[in-house]
Write a sequence for this structure.
């Protein structure tokens, strides 16, 4: 019984700072919305309606609550993968800021090699996922190798690769694969798209929606990464290097190999984010433009306390702001860029987690000292 209570208290303690960050973010966002002369409740309800988590007053033909909900889930899927990629790098003490580029390159190759082919879904889907994993992990491992062998910081390498990948893929899209109307890449064949198109109802009640194929895989990967990082020797080495690479080396851990492995895992997850985003949600690639989702995933990983399960729940929250911003902006009258502002505020509070936790601990210790329970407890310096 005491073990259960201890685990429950530990769970509450780990959730306290993220929950407090969310509350503070909503309070600050409410003040900003009030300064714009709008009702914060209407704005937040607009986010929920745009994400299919609340019913809209009216829908267009062939659309309904399920249309918005599964569209939200289609964006949530790559967000989960992207945040897991950032989280894995951070656990090893590495800042993988190049998730956007590691999304784009595998997605472009999967589009060219599989998306424009006539392969059936039973063959195309596994190939697309395999390409995302292999090419994403190759990019991540390359960044990790440069970090280990030449001590080139991973932030510099990943940002430079983002530019290289963006312009190279943009050249090939504009030269060979551009749609003459949109100038984006041509849409892929439906059999290769990581989406199941279906509908419900008939006549005036017909509602069409698209089920994301990768969502179940994303949930499975969340718990797989939790098991790897918390229950395996690989995870132990990654965590040890992230905490202190010098102590890890003294303990006999091959730091260089662990750095390459951690970045390979991070890149593989980013590659999965890419194929589920470009070959799932958007169905095309805009040349010379990186997905903002790759950068949002950084905020998600930090908000999730750099844990797999935390990143999963943080993805749900941040995706509501990003997906619901279009409907909110057009119906409430608040610029949809407010979603990015809210995400930035959320990242600021989440990054201040250590300071917030220290303030909470100091307040608790002062309260215990006044009650005479633990008068010898020292207050940490602020």
């Amino acid at each position: 019984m005491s073990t259960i209570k201890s685990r429950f208290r530990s769970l509450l303690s780990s959730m306290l700072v993220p929950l407090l960050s969310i509350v503070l973010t909503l309070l600050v966002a409410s003040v900003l919305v009030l300064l714009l002369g709008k009702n914060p409740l209407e704005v937040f309800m607009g986010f929920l309606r745009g994400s299919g988590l609340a019913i809209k007053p009216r829908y267009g033909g062939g659309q309904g609550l399920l249309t918005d909900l599964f569209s939200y889930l289609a964006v949530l899927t790559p967000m989960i993968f992207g945040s897991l990629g950032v989280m894995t790098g951070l656990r090893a003490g590495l800042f993988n800021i190049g998730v956007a580029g590691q999304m784009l390159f595998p997605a472009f190759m999967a589009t060219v090699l599989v998306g424009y082919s006539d392969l059936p879904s039973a063959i195309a889907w596994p190939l697309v996922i395999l390409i995302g994993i292999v090419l994403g992990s190759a990019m991540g491992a390359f960044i990790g190798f440069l970090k280990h062998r030449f001590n080139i910081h991973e932030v510099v390498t990943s940002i430079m690769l983002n530019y290289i990948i963006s312009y190279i893929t943009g050249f090939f899209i504009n030269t060979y694969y551009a749609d003459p109307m949109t100038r984006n890449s041509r849409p892929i064949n439906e059999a290769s798209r990581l989406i199941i198109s279906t509908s419900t109802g008939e006549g005036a009640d017909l509602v069409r929606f698209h089920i994301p194929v990768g969502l179940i895989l994303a949930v499975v990967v969340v718990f797989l990464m939790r098991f790897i990082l918390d229950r395996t020797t690989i995870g132990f080495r990654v965590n040890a290097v992230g905490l202190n690479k010098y102590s890890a080396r003294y303990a006999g851990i091959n730091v260089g190999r662990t750095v390459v492995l951690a970045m390979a895992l991070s890149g593989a997850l980013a590659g999965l984010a890419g194929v589920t985003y470009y070959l799932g949600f958007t169905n095309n690639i805009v040349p010379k433009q990186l997905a903002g989702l790759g950068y949002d995933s950084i905020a998600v990983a930090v908000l999730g306390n750099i844990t797999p399960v935390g990143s999963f729940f943080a993805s749900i929250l941040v995706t509501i702001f990003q997906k619901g911003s279009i409907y909110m902006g057009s119906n409430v009258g608040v610029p949809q860029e407010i979603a990015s502002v809210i995400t930035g505020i959320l990242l600021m509070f989440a990054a201040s987690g250590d300071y917030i936790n220290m303030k909470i601990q100091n307040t608790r210790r002062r309260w215990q000292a006044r009650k005479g329970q633990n008068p010898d407890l020292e207050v940490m310096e602020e």
Remarks:
- Residues 61-310 form a domain with the ABC transporter involved in vitamin B12 uptake, BtuC fold (CATH 1.10.3470).
- Strands lie at 195-200, 207-212.
- The chain has 14 helices and two strands.
